[in-house]
Amino acid sequence: MVESWVNSAERIGADLLLELSGPGGRRAALIRALREAVRGGRLAPGTRLPPYRSLAADLGVARNTVADAYAELVAEGWLTARQGSGTRVADRAEPLRRAARVAGGVAGRVAGQAPPGERDPLHDLRQGTPDASSFPRAAWLTSYRRALQQAPSEVFGPGDPAGRRELREALAEYLARARGVRTVPERIVICSGFAHALRLLFGRSGSTGAGGDARGENNVGGARGGGVLRGPLAVEAYGLGFHRELLAAAGVRTVPVPLDEAGARVDLLGRERGVLLTPAHQFPTGGPLHASRRAAVIDWARARGAVVVEDDYDGEFRYDRKPVGAVQGLDPERVIHVGSVSKSLSPALRLGWMVLPERYVGGVLAAKGEREAWVSLLDQLSLADFIASGAYDRHVRRMRQRYRRRRDRLVEVLAGHAPHVEVTGVAAGLHAVLRLPPGTERSTVEAAARRGVALDGLAAFRHPRTAMEAGDGLVVGYATPSEHAYAAALEALCGVLAPGGPRSPGIGTAADPATGGTAE
Amino acid sequence: MVESWVNSAERIGADLLLELSGPGGRRAALIRALREAVRGGRLAPGTRLPPYRSLAADLGVARNTVADAYAELVAEGWLTARQGSGTRVADRAEPLRRAARVAGGVAGRVAGQAPPGERDPLHDLRQGTPDASSFPRAAWLTSYRRALQQAPSEVFGPGDPAGRRELREALAEYLARARGVRTVPERIVICSGFAHALRLLFGRSGSTGAGGDARGENNVGGARGGGVLRGPLAVEAYGLGFHRELLAAAGVRTVPVPLDEAGARVDLLGRERGVLLTPAHQFPTGGPLHASRRAAVIDWARARGAVVVEDDYDGEFRYDRKPVGAVQGLDPERVIHVGSVSKSLSPALRLGWMVLPERYVGGVLAAKGEREAWVSLLDQLSLADFIASGAYDRHVRRMRQRYRRRRDRLVEVLAGHAPHVEVTGVAAGLHAVLRLPPGTERSTVEAAARRGVALDGLAAFRHPRTAMEAGDGLVVGYATPSEHAYAAALEALCGVLAPGGPRSPGIGTAADPATGGTAE
Prior knowledge:
The structure is a homodimer of 520-residue chains. The first copy, chain A, is α/β, with parallel strands linked by helices and 520 residues long. In chain A, 33% of the residues lie in helices and 13% in strands. Chain A is built from 14 helices and 19 strands. The first copy, chain A, has helices at 9-12, 25-39, 52-59, 63-76, 137-150, 165-179, 194-202, 241-249, 291-304, 358-368, 377-388, 391-417, 441-450, 486-497, and strands spanning 2-6, 16-20, 79-82, 86-89, 123-124, 188-191, 233-236, 254-257, 259-260, 263-264, 274-277, 307-311, 335-340, 352-355, 422-424, 432-435, 453-454, 456-457, 473-476. In chain A, helix 8 (241-249) links the parallel strand 7 and strand 8 (254-257). In chain A, helix 6 packs across helix 11 and helix 12 packs parallel to helix 14. The longest helix of chain A is centred in the C-terminal third of the chain and has 27 residues, at 391-417. The interface between A and B is large, with 146 and 145 residues.
């Protein structure tokens, strides 16, 4: 388009190349060019701009075009116009430094919460993630399309903080059938995952600090930041540090409960106001909560007026038998059951649910806010369709078979190549714990890292105030690699664990159990 | 399938109808039937169950089937098995009361945060929501499909808390072009909306209360609950009570800044650490922040080391001129710019963004957590595609024309039927403020409600500690109704406002400006 040297050095103190190009006509182009000149420092703060008439003549545009452009930039604050002193570059605008991204500002990695930037080891066996390459794209798109096309208009307005009724109905049916959960849609609240559920349950109540300032305000709902429960909260002596820290940040004291072969020692519970458990498959050590303990924890909660928070993070995945039902079914008024699609489908969807005792429903909804502020309503409808259409069951079944094969292969390969390493815990979930000889955990994790195998040691999950010692072990997320990458990951792991150190044991592929050949 | 009376009253104390039907074979059916019998109270706690052999004979199933079913229910905690005393119904399980939903537990409605359950007045003119019936379903589905089909597998794994790079790049380009925002993708953090942004910026830092308990924990990231900024924070004397309350709950004292015809009196700012502004279109009073004030607030922030939080909630919608650029462009190191699709597309998507000064990026990411815990990565990719493909611009353009017509019609109709009511504020956004004679606001809002017209008075937005008095007025969300419902809503509004009270003024339709006929 038009280019012109605005050569009026005696007035603006600098030569200025205005490139009147780009979309939107001369006026828009002039505004952009002047703005860029100010931004870039070519027009310094305080500089006086040429009168409309002069610049218009220089650029070959109408005088009004220049006047409009100046007015716009005055309105935006780039220029100032004062009677008598003409139009000048405003005092502010400095050129933008193009900053390198400060990566999280986080020191150190939390086990199970690896920043994605670090998620590119050669072999990723960190727990916590399903096989990302197996997301059922076609089936999910079918549900999303149907949800989008069939949604009533009101879906695109403000949403009910409880979540879409369609989803809560689908979940009530599914959870009863698949997890033995006893509930009704009115007691389900949709959330973005387990961490969100913890925040809604334990978030600070605003009653401390400068909270007195809130007087005179209508102290309603979503503003509160959550908190229907209070500490102290008993937690398993081994678990996700991320959860403990989230609770600590909410002012909740966590009390570690030791584990034995029957699961959490709920017989040791005392005056805590609640207990956070992973009954189906203790995370990370891998055992289920024994039936007598399941009963005992309900008895304790009833006697104490306490509550059980059930983190049912991988309850669908049991390989040696049908999944054991949720503890929630034993007493829906004493157990808060929390689940999500993060292990069954993908953590990318940010879809989870809380099944609540009646008395907490109002408080959790108030903590969540008067409108759905978190979870896409379209995604909620899509998941409702995905469950109701049977696609969810089909996907879980398919992944159950796949992960079961992977676990079997892990056991088999280790038996052959590292017989001193025992795979413990029940055949379930997306991870296994490998027992190591005492004193070797740390060096093994480090040796693995050197060979490009990312995984965590048991120590990474230990409550800092527990007296319990679970011994040395590796937490192996066998679900994490893609199907084609699993055999190589197993091989690399064996290379680390095999007696005599690194070598290539010939693992074969997990995807095709029939293939047993050596890899080299 | 099989039905049988298990008539063994001397052992289990009750007749029990077991319906061995439904999917999954005899064993599963028996488990379900027994579980339901316990749940429903037909098998009372403590009841002794028949031996395997007896029940198996009664039901005509294999003995092992009964043994398996009992074992399952023992594992789930419904039954207990002790050597010598047989299998009994556990002491817990009570029948579930089917509770009525406790609707939010919230007393009173926050202006602009109406619970959806209340959102069914005859005519909804509450502000805050775009026309839900105009969501671009086909175009959004196109972007979603493309995003889903083209996404690399890693999308379905844990996500970067900053948000997908694709979206941050699309936003950096769009915001520069449409809003005059100066930034780079590295300084953008995706969030679920403005309330989420406030929580990330001001959330409590775990350093108070029981925070000492966190010692020994690796006090990392997402656990913290946010908080890169502290109060006191200046806010506009009229604004969303929801935001003030959210801040109060986070322990942030808000200091009201009065408004005049040039916008917020930023010349009155003092020792506050920041100021929250709606510069493009003051919410709710409707004026833009004057150019001199824009400059002044940047000067104040620089001099004080303070920060400006710019709530650019409806910046795309200006009808009388091109939108004024964002204040952020004046000094990207002093302004946090926050936007979302909640007004431009739909609040159902839960997609927003923060454009941050460099020094806050690390802290906000740490507050958000080490992984994306909130916003669907697929939705992020879809929005990136929607923006990059031009669909977003097209939709905004279309809605701008539509809302402009509605606003023009509102002005026109009121001029004809309620000339004493002035429409104030610039021609922008999704709402207008109608000035009322002194002392009539409350009675007018009530009269409107009686006639099925839902809207808010200005008083609903007033900071409880401001000395400023904006006078009487109605906040009319002309964007809220669907296109076909708008004419009737306007007519009803006129019926409330017209001198001499309710009557039918003959409003015509907004959808077709050519139609000026009477409605009766």
